[in-house]
Design a protein that fits this description.
Low-confidence stretches: 248-256
Distance between the termini: 32 Å
Order of helices and strands: EHEHEEEEHEEEHH
Helix content: 25-40%
GO molecular function: electron-transferring-flavoprotein dehydrogenase activity; flavin adenine dinucleotide binding
Shape: globular
Bound molecules: flavin-adenine dinucleotide
CATH architecture of the largest domain: 3-Layer(bba) Sandwich
Keywords: FAD, Flavoprotein, Oxidoreductase
Pfam family, one: Pyr_redox_2
CATH class of the largest domain: Alpha Beta
Protein name: FAD-dependent pyridine nucleotide-disulfide oxidoreductase
Strand order of the largest sheet: 3-2-1-6
Largest sheet: 4 strands, parallel
CATH topology of the largest domain: FAD/NAD(P)-binding domain
Structural class: alpha/beta
Number of domains: 3
Family: Belongs to the FAD-dependent oxidoreductase family.
Number of helices: 5
Radius of gyration: 21 Å
Number of strands: 9
Mean pLDDT: 91
CATH superfamily of the largest domain: FAD/NAD(P)-binding domain
């Protein structure tokens, strides 16, 4: 049994997409569980997101009963390991106490690029991401490409972006091999994100359409979790009802 099922109070450190989505999933599955999100930043969801998107998410988190403790770094991390059920109390720099049975680290993911050596390491920026040209060549290299989350392309890090990077890099490699096809350039995607808060909640932002509500968010991501997209890509069949453990019944494939 997951430690979540036996916890009355959960602390999530980090109010980025991971912390927010996890808060929504916990509240959807165990509505009576107290969920507190703590972040040193003064608002949720760092990055170039419009303020009305953040406001909509804050409103929905409030409706779910998720407590936000923002602008409040902890004096010290909890004394127990992340993901292990063992009651504890932590204190913020302003002296506020938060008691919980379980906590999860929802911050601190870093690109794994430390293996680059020699000339290739020159493209490695201070935060571990890799500088690339608009053809997605590693900065300073004509024949090495980088794609996906490890790149410093200025856009939201998304699977969809990684897929589009792959198409551009593959086209450039094909041109190099055949001597035909010219150079292909990648244009960073405009800001956009689907952020479910449980299978039927949350909000999305799309540069052309603005802020989208819970129904559209559930349709785009919260309910199918993009499983249909990947099933189609890998030629897999949906599981039968007796073996099904996922969401996505009767949902259309997500465009992202
Ligand atoms: C909670 C959450 C929700 C998300 N929701 C969405 C969403 O709704 N839509 C969306 O488009 N995106 C979403 N994303 C973002 C998406 O998951 C990433 O943008 C995407 O996975 C990036 O793909 P990638 O191939 O660049 O990196 P990854 O998926 O991280 O894959 C990198 C792989 O390389 C491996 N690796 C690392 N080092 C080495 C090495 N030295 N040699 C070989 N292999 C190595 C890793 O083990 C890993 O398997 C979400 C992410 C999170 C965390």
């Amino acid at each position: 049994m997951t430690p979540l099922a036996t916890s009355d109070a959960v602390l999530l450190l980090g109010a980025g997409p991971v912390g927010l989505e996890l808060a929504g999933e916990i509240k959807a599955a165990w509505p009576a569980t107290a969920v507190t999100l703590v972040d040193p930043a003064h608002d949720i969801l760092a990055g170039p997101h419009p303020s009305q998107f953040r406001a909509e998410l804050r409103r929905k988190l409030d409706n779910l009963g998720v407590e936000l403790v923002l602008g409040a770094p902890l004096v010290a991390d909890p004394p127990t390991p992340s993901g292990v059920r063992a009651p504890f109390t932590v204190t913020t720099g302003e002296g506020r106490s938060v008691r919980a049975d379980l906590w999860y680290r929802c911050h601190g993911a870093a690109p794994a690029t430390g293996y680059l050596r020699g000339d290739l390491a020159v493209a490695r920026l201070e935060d571990g991401r890799l500088a690339v040209t608009d053809e997605l060549r590693l900065s300073g290299s004509a024949t090495v490409f980088a794609i996906g989350d490890i790149t410093a392309v200025p856009e939201t890090k998304l699977a969809k972006a990684a897929e589009l990077h792959a198409e551009v890099a593959a086209a450039n490699i094909r041109s190099m091999i055949t001597g035909k096809g010219g150079r292909h350039r990648y244009r960073p995607a405009p800001p956009g994100m689907s952020l479910p808060l449980g299978p039927a909640g949350g909000a999305s932002y799309n540069a052309a359409l603005g802020v989208l509500g819970a129904d559209r968010t559930a349709e785009l991501k919260g309910s199918p979790l993009r499983l249909d997209v990947y099933r189609a890509r890998f030629g897999l069949h949906r599981p039968t009802d007796s073996t099904r453990h996922d969401r996505g019944q009767d949902m259309p494939a997500s465009p992202r």
